[in-house]
Amino acid sequence: MPFRRYLPHYLMIAPFMVLFAVFFLYPILSGLFYSFHDWNGVRTPEFVGAANYTKIIGSRDFSRAMGNLAAYIAITVPLGILVALGLALLVDSFTGRWSNFFRNAYFMPVVLPAFLAATIWRWIYAPNFGLLNIVLGWFGIPSVNFLNDTDTMLYALIAVDIWVSAGFNMVIILAGLKNIPTELYEAARLDGASKRQQLFHVTVPMLWPVLFFVLTYGLISAMQVFDKPWLLTGSSFTSYGGRRNALLFPVMDMMGRAFGGVKFGEAAAYGFLLTIAIVVVTGVMFGLRAWSERR
Amino acid sequence: MKTTRAFRAALTAATALIAVGFAGAATAEDVTLEYWVYSDFAQGDALAMQQEFIKEFTDAHPGVTINISGKGDDDLTAGQVAGAASGTVPDVYMNAQSVGAQLVDVGAMANIYTQFMALPEEQRAQFDKDALASCMPKPDELYCLPYTGFGSLLFRNLTVLEKAGIDPATPPATWAEWYDQMQKVKAAGMYAIPDETLVFNSIAEIYATTGNTETWGFDWPNRKTRIDEATMTTVLQKFVDMVPLNTGTSRNDQATKDLFISNQLAFHTIGPWVNPTYDEAAKASGLKYDFVLIPGDTAGKTGGIRSYEIVAVAPGKNQEIAFQFAAFITEKAQMARWAKLLARYNANAAAMADPEVSALPLIKVSVDAAHGAMEVAAPYFVGSIPSCYNSTVIDYASATADGDYTPAEGAKEMIAALNECMAQ
Amino acid sequence: MSTMRKQRRLTVWTALKWALALAIALVAVFPIWWMINVVFAQAGEPVSLNPRLWPTSLGAGIDKIATIFAETGYLRAYGISILYALLTIAGVLLVGSLAAFEFSLFEFPGRKILFGVVLLALMVPTAVTIIPTYVLVSRLGWLNTMEGLVVPGLASAFGLFMLVQFMRAIPKDMIEAARLDGAGHFQIYWHVVLPLCRNALVTLAILTFIQTWGNYMWPLIVGTREELYTVGQVVGQFNSPLSHHTVDTVMTANLLAAVPPLIFFLIFQRQIVQGIAMSGSKG
Fold first, then answer.
1. Does A145 lie at the interface with B, CB-CB under 8 angstroms?
2. Which of A222, B73, B396, C190 is the most buried (most CB within 10 A)?
3. pLDDT 10s digits, B115-134
């Protein structure tokens, strides 16, 4: 009986799978059910077909949020990884106590709760008296209204984002660096490879699996960005997204529709539209990897 | 600080004594009420007073226990909506009028009309008429008792005004005078006003200098906005005029308060809750400021908005006793003590008329401010305000200030977009 | 000649490298330092007069902290948050490592599909599931209880994903060797695999701690009574934009929330890199 042979395996995954089925799978499926209904969380759900979906896709806020998200991801994900890679190489070039010191210093922002990071940065970005504007003032640059000027808001968010997440990605990349066998570098040196050639021909290819993980995970979480822009713009359920909706993102709009407008069916539909986008993007990522490995 | 500590110690001792006294008398019908309040009401002196109210009420109603929890504004809404979904709405709770319709929609608010009418005539008459009316979408439906409230005030930095050559003794009586002062302030190298286009409520405050409640808010039967195009055009022109004069920060930003405290900003339109900050600065760094009514287009008209916090009761088995408690805390004796402690205006007109209360300067101005002001999201309790509404108003006001539209275009486009948003 | 030039260039490079590393460290840490200075300064001083580059008044800071501890349930919230975090960590590590052990080291029917479903769940935003999960928890009678806070978060898809990545690197022959020595299935997990990925578990523990500590929405709706307020909720009471609080109090409340995660990190920081590093070493 093959099942008996596999029984120990199923027993070991059972706790996880049961909890997962009850507290993730069931809510996801019921969310899917509600996304086709008009539902305020209390009344009997009323079937409305795809109306929630068409309404969202047709709404101004949805296109704005998706547009913002595309711009945000296009910058924050690659830039975040480059910064993290740079930090990792930098830390790796030190040894002993200093290597530890810099690693811990760079990791420090990761530890802060999001609401704290946002509060600090709201102060730093404040016009006139904000720390950043004081520093810019030393160089004669007039005060910039980072969080209310639609030209700078996105970049202000991205800076906070990288400040917070670079340390996290750096640590993962550092681990990958430590795993590259030193013999490879020695071999490259014997072949007369310069430092830069070593970087591009040994380090980056060997790091690729780690970078792929960082990239994929970074992409998935960037698409669900919520608390940083929400807090930086001082949003509330009745009004969110910052000046001229320049920092409106899908999950923010979803939360606003759920708790501000008590339209949970609509919010669920919004969530699944975003999920589809995430699955597609992730699928493309894995497809690209498979394609590049086959070559 | 010392007195409150002593007071609290005495209170604890008294509670303990009474607890011992009543231990034997606890009735079979023990009820526990969950009572949610704004977070500032659940801290420090405000909490001590709330607990005093609770104790007085539970002393008179043996067997009743009341758990008080403080929550931030959004957290109240989220908790109540979630509570409705699971059938665990708090028995007595506070929130803002403007989310009332959502809470009625999810069944979190009981219609307390019959219970209210059963109160003595004298107690019913204590409430501010307008405030009470805003809780009644229909003649026989009452969903809340109005609690604390505010009318927006114009905080003025007197040092800045003097430096700009303005005599602060007479506050501006009309928009024209006010705008003239703003320009003088700017000419003297300081900021006149925060950027009023950034926050829905500050847009409403300036709108109210020209418009009124009838041309603001919602036309629910037709699902349209009540905003009037001509009025909005005038108001958008004001925003355009203020662009060179403003700080670029919203009225709620800490940066705005910092500018005001450090004598670089002349005017700040906002509710009375900034007063503790300015009061502290007056003591620490000698800030000189006062608060007056926001002037309107014509002398005697007041700008600014009013809004009330409300006390509501959940439907269900505890509704009767929960209403009794809500009625108790909104009664004159409690509201007068509450107003004196916080120096804050509230919806109990009888308490506001109490000589000791009306002597407090912030309350005195607030009473007039609230009476002249525009309702921020009326009519209440009819429909849930769509989440796109406020952001559309902000969006077009900002865009017009940025120069993307002329005021006339901006008003037209804004109203079209709002009607589209309402129709969804 | 050429070696000398090379050495000189090297020192310039080294100096630049140090300058860069220190500058970045400053950017990373200074905002936190600044926050501390805001708390340890006289209340009501505008930033223009006192840019808060260093603490100016220890007494004022201590007063603010004392006021917050006296006037809010901050200390109890510390307790709740720490308990919430520790129980979540324990559960996530146990449940996640059991499942990761199977998914990474063994073949059995349905393995790929089950793992794929779990990964797919990583892509659904929490906002979709929060109300259904909440209603479920309330039907279980878990509102305002610790289990209501903890249990729904135990099956962490991220945790599983991460542990699977680690455990894949464990050589299969080690498992075979243990089996030949007569070790049972569970014994292999407990005595062989777990010790091997101890550092990985510590890493996951730290990440779970940070994540749980910063979790806001779930505790907000599940733990509505003050007895169950987490630190995030207590801080949330200060952060609402229209509250009467002055900025110094708000900052103090926020800063106090950061202290435990910082301590937790400083204690376990060594494990973070080692944890991830050891996993892949057999590549």
1. yes
2. B396
3. 999 999 999 999 999 999 99
